[in-house]
Amino acid sequence: MPAGGARPGAGRKRDPEAHRAVLTAAEELLNEVGYHRVTMERIAERSGVAKMTLYRWWPNKAAVVTDAVRTRLAPTAVPDTGDIAADALAQLEALLQTLTLYGDASVVAGAMSSRGEAGLADLRDILHPWFEGLVTILDRAVATGKLPPDFPVHLTAQAWLGYVIYRVVFLQEVVGADNLRVLVKQSLAA
């Protein structure tokens, strides 16, 4: 970090209109050509913002794309049907759909790995609401007596998320609904 603790480019404010144009262009391109074919050049051309400016605002395409789609990666609602297994399964299936919203598993893996620590931090931030949703489902089940009071709510939610992330992000595999059903059933039966 430069002297004084300022970030590079911190003295310049982003033009809000140009910023919106870049994020809109990135999302449009993502939908049209897929993550692997989006480039900073294409984003610059589509948005009308200079490529050099893009690199001043974001370190790479993964950072631009993450900012462009961040709000679409959050869960819309926590399922509440009264059936804990069905609710957990619905939440996990929605997470899987979100992780593959813009292509196969290689998109999340590629975006995360190209951003290093920043990618890990973004993934953690994106996953936190999903974790909280799973905790809410499990807490409801404990509160209604469907699960014992000493049920390991946080550990179970972490295990479910860990399974999905390991398979999708690190192994770049497709996780089927059958896999999730077994995972949830076994966890709740323990």
What would you say this structure looks like, in words?
The protein is mainly α and 190 residues long. It folds into two domains: 3-69, Arc Repressor Mutant, subunit A; 74-189, Orthogonal Bundle (Tetracycline Repressor, domain 2), CATH 1.10.357. The chain is 67% helix and 0% strand. It has eight helices and no strands. It has helices at 16-33, 40-47, 51-57, 61-69, 84-99, 105-143, 153-170, 177-189.
Radius of gyration: 19 Å
The major beta sheet can be summarized as: none
Q: Report the count of strand segments.
A: 0
CATH homology group of the largest domain: Tetracycline Repressor, domain 2
Number of domains: 2
Secondary structural class: mainly alpha
Helix content: 55-70%
Put simply, the count of helices is: 8
Using the coordinates shown, work out and report the CATH topology of the largest domain.
Answer: Tetracycline Repressor, domain 2
Low-confidence stretches: 1-11
Per CATH, the class of the largest domain reads Mainly Alpha
- The 3D shape can be described as elongated
From N to C, what is the helix and strand string? HHHHHHHH
Q: What portion of residues belong to β-strands?
A: under 5%
Q: Give the CA-CA distance, first to last residue.
A: 49 Å
What would the average pLDDT be, to the nearest integer? 86
Level-2 CATH architecture of the largest domain: Orthogonal Bundle
Domain HTH tetR-type: 16-76
Keywords: DNA-binding, Transcription, Transcription regulation
Protein name: DNA-binding transcriptional regulator, AcrR family
DNA-binding region: 39-58
